Amino acid sequence: MARRALGPATLRAVQALAAAARDTAAPPRWLLGCSGGPDSLALAAAAVRVAAGRDDLRVGAVVVDHGLQPGSADAAARAADAVRAIGLTDVVVRAAGPGPADAGPEGAARTARYAVLEEEAAAREADLLLGHTLDDQAETVLLGLLRGSGPRSLAAMAPRAGRRLRPFLGGDAPGLRRADTEAVCAELGLDPWRDPHNADPRFRRVAVRERLLPALAALADAPPDALTDALVRTAALARDDADLLDELADGLARECRTTEPTGPAGLRCAPLGPAPRALRTRVLRRWLVEAGAPEPALVHVRAVEALVTDWRGQRFVEVPGLRVRRAGDRLLAVPAGAGPSGVGGPEPVS
Questions:
Q1: Can you give the residue ranges of the tRNA(Ile)-lysidine synthase substrate-binding domain (predicted)?
Q2: Which residues are annotated as a binding site?
Q3: Average pLDDT over residues 15-33
């Protein structure tokens, strides 16, 4: 019996997954993050079809139950059954923890979800495939802009980042929109789950999708798809710039880092001072995070930067979780509240 021809949307999804397979180390193993929604069902359907043509590709899926809604366990079980019906047999359901309390409901759920997904992928030595679409990418760019957190935030989601692969964001094959994943489900007769949270404008991403994007498209007198394309291009350009700056900052950090008798590593000020600010602040922010400061804001990075570029004998700078001071040519950090004897070891002998 002849095999049924793929519909146009399904063909695009399969082409995206086939391109992802070429970006997977041997022996190729994939773990799909599946919610049972249109994007993840389209991802699973395409993965099954790519795997059918390759004897060496192993594909599994994990469904994460956040426990945030009544009946969430039943919804997760139905999502797992839907993925099995597509043709995957290695499907597990995992419960997620509560996530960090200070991250907000969306951030906490995202952190908890990725912790589960990354743990499962690492245990299987697999790449983690996610079904984010070009529409998700455009929303992420706008969310980054609202946070005001610089080009790395505007770079949004990389098609490849560590274990994480997002085939529908494009690259070697064209990307897919949300309408495409809906079309895949329609072509294949799949009945995706509709998460009620995805229609609740109290969540910032939903408000961006339902209110901000249409308003911007109207203001630009452009079709919504054209605005999405522009935002996706912005992410790609910002990512190229951010990647280069991060690479240059890595070299500067290696030049500046010092080993201290006690406490975290220090930083030498002499190479930092004349460095371009874009590199200097990157080095300082990473150093603060490594030393124990949770998500230092720009105001904290700038205060520590003043110890390098505008030092007038200040005693120290307080940032969340840390106290930072300058001792000669070194920046030293200890947990907030530590006494003078605990600040980065002894003073240098002059």
A1: 267-331
A2: 35-40
A3: 88
